[in-house]
Amino acid sequence: MGAPTQMIEFSKRYVGMRIDVKPDSFQLAQVFTISRGSRTQADVLTTTITDGGHQGQGECVPYARYGETLESVTAQINGLTGEITRDTLQGMLPAGAARNAVDCALWDLAAKQAGKRVWDLLGLAAPRPEITAYTLSLDTPDAMQAQAAKNKNRPLLKIKLGTPDDMARLEAVRRGAPDSQIIVDANEGWTAEVYGDLAPHLIRLGVAMVEQPLPAGGDDMLGEIARPLPVCADEACHDRASLPSLKGKYDMVNIKLDKTGGLTEALALKEEAIGLGYGVMVGCMVGSSLAMAPATILAQGVAFTDLDGPLLLAEDRDAPLKFDAAGVHAPTAALWG
Questions:
Q1: What would the pLDDT profile of 164-201 be if each residue is shown by its tens digit?
Q2: Which residues carry out catalysis?
Q3: Rounded CA gap, 323 and 204, in Å?
Q4: Which stretches within 206-285 are classed as H helix?
């Protein structure tokens, strides 16, 4: 793991427990680019909750798209007061990175205190491996074809797009990985006109799903056109309160712990979304195995799993998640839960 980012850590004692928050930085294996910009490292916050002789940990990735920074999320956690439980936390903090780190740390703490795994506490079967997408960063067509060829044996590739000139990239990736299933993430980068032009080619090239083609809040056109290709809400879906605004526009929702504010709300969102007829994708920000670990529970049985954050890193946590041909495995107790 890389050196922590330069920021003051804090420790605060609450009713019966202490919460410590510190920034950590993980170098990426290569530059990672989406339509909004590039990065060379993953800057995260690690939250540790201590209660007696037990400790629980959670990780969050503050995201500028949602107005979050390492400092603002730290301040949110530092501002908590009173007795903090998973239930009370839902009303103390809004959906977002801060609540995610604390919620997941509370789940880990509860498991350590009970001497059980989190899925046992939830009354669920132990998570099985799930095939995860592997993300190809936005780049030139030639570079993306090379990325695709290097990873052509992976069963599911996710392509980062979101510019007016994406047709050549699509063709290049399909040439590089002719047999892989492909999903596309535009990260709000297309206009209605660009998406309308690309949609038939997405289908022709065997793309299985397109994620957030239009900006959240500017996506009404999706309700006015046929959708032979499933459209997944990412930036447009945060928690259960988002669902009414998606009706008629989206076929799937991408559930991320940093958007829902933790595993507690994520599980509730998954259940409600499925009940309303939406398909489910479980995704992630670019973080370490600690951030992905709770999502392996959430990912059971969903249409698409995208928990490749650790695969994009040059370094990871101790006791990292296991990835193999079967997919991403459940965490060991040494990591989380």
A1: 889 999 999 999 999 999 999 999 999 988 998 899 99
A2: 160, 256
A3: 31
A4: 243-246, 257-260, 263-275
